[in-house]
UniProtKB/TrEMBL annotation:
Any single biological process term in GO: lysine biosynthetic process via diaminopimelate
InterPro entries the UniProt entry points to: DAP_epimerase_AS, DAP_epimerase_DapF
Residues the UniProt record annotates as site (Could be important to modulate the pK values of the two catalytic cysteine residues): H164, E217
Gene source species: Lysinibacillus telephonicus
Designated name of the protein: Diaminopimelate epimerase
Gene (UniProt): dapF
Entry GO CC: cytosol
Pathway: Amino-acid biosynthesis; L-lysine biosynthesis via DAP pathway; DL-2,6-diaminopimelate from LL-2,6-diaminopimelate: step 1/1
Reaction(s) the record says it catalyses: (2S,6S)-2,6-diaminopimelate = meso-2,6-diaminopimelate
């Protein structure tokens, strides 16, 4: 049988997007592992499923490149938001995710004519059991040196709802990714701290309203960007006085986003604003667990996004690898 898939990205975080009325239509882990093979037309970071919902405009499921399932994906949600809003002819919608029903909306472009969407990132918790994570007898880790990880880097653990460990670093840790890679691989293998693994981000403060974030994503590895990681990094930066504005620019290897961080009666209100780019449409033949790309039709949208990439390279040339 033949099916149509879109190849999409948010901040260079690339996915295949598939719309189905049947949540059990295919073996999603098997299909995703095949789609994400690097030598298979460039691969991807995962598969986004757009499904019917009885409590929202649509439901999103996120299958990682290794076949595991993530509870949320901010970059992916923006592309799903665009797909759903355009399909329904709406400017805003509610998308059901594993942990919450999230508000999404069409936004003014962040650069040129790039299609841009704003998505709610929720819920937020600093409780270690929400990641889950264990460290001595602590219930939270907030801007704290953990000797087992590094004698100098201050870390914060937070779920949004994906689990994140955020380290505030000097430029040297952005220029050389080896320390981040070693720690990330340790925390995503069998260890005593993060039994289900964790996304590890290193954050370099650039200006009072700008940060740079690089993320090692659980189930994927280093990615061009991770939406929930960028939002969590913006939150941690704001809470620790590294930035002093509600709207924070977050540069990453794949581009940039805007993250809005607000607090209302003790509740954090987080919004991720960025591109929702469609690069190609694929026709794929699926027979049992055998797959084959039959056709690919490229769009013109990536050409506009490449101009955004050039801006990021210019702004971060002094320290990013």
């Amino acid at each position: 049988m033949e099916r149509t898939f879109l190849k999409v990205h948010g901040s260079g975080n690339t996915f295949y997007l598939y719309n189905s009325n049947n949540e059990n239509e295919f073996d999603w882990p098997s299909l995703t592992k095949w789609l994400c093979l690097k030598d298979n037309d460039g691969g991807a970071d995962g598969l986004l499923l757009v499904l019917p919902s009885t409590i929202a405009d649509a439901k999103m499921r996120v299958i990682n490149a290794d076949g595991s399932e993530a509870s949320m994906c901010g970059n992916g949600l923006r592309t799903v938001a665009r797909f759903v809003c355009e399909k329904l002819g709406k400017y805003e919608a509610i998308i059901e995710t594993m942990k919450a029903n999230l508000h999404v909306r069409n936004e003014a472009s962040i650069f040129g004519t790039i299609p841009t969407y704003a998505v709610e990132i929720s819920p937020v918790s600093f409780e270690l059991n929400s990641l889950p994570m264990k460290y001595k007898n602590q219930t939270v880790i907030r801007h704290q040196i953990i000797e087992e990880f590094s004698p100098t880097i201050k870390f914060t653990a937070v779920s949004v709802p994906n689990p994140h460990l955020i380290g505030i670093v000097d430029a040297q840790y952005i220029e050389d990714a080896s320390h981040q890679q070693q720690l990330s691989e340790f925390l995503n293998s069998e260890n005593e701290f993060c039994m289900d693994g964790v996304n590890v981000s290193y954050v370099y403060p650039m200006k009072n309203d700008t940060i740079f974030v690089r993320t090692f994503e659980r189930g994927v590895g280093f990615t061009n960007a991770c939406g929930t990681a960028m939002t969590a990094s913006a939150l941690v930066s704001k809470l620790n006085g590294l930035v002093d504005t509600d709207l924070i620019t977050v540069y990453n290897p794949g581009g940039f986003v805007k993250c809005e961080v607000k607090q209302n009666n003790g509740e954090y209100q987080l919004t991720l604003i960025g591109n929702a780019t469609v690069t190609a449409e694929y026709t794929i033949e699926i027979n049992d667990n055998q797959y084959k790309i039959l056709n690919r039709k490229d769009t013109e949208e990536q050409k506009q996004y490449e101009k955004c990439i050039e801006l990021v390279k210019k702004e971060t040339s002094s320290f990013s690898a």
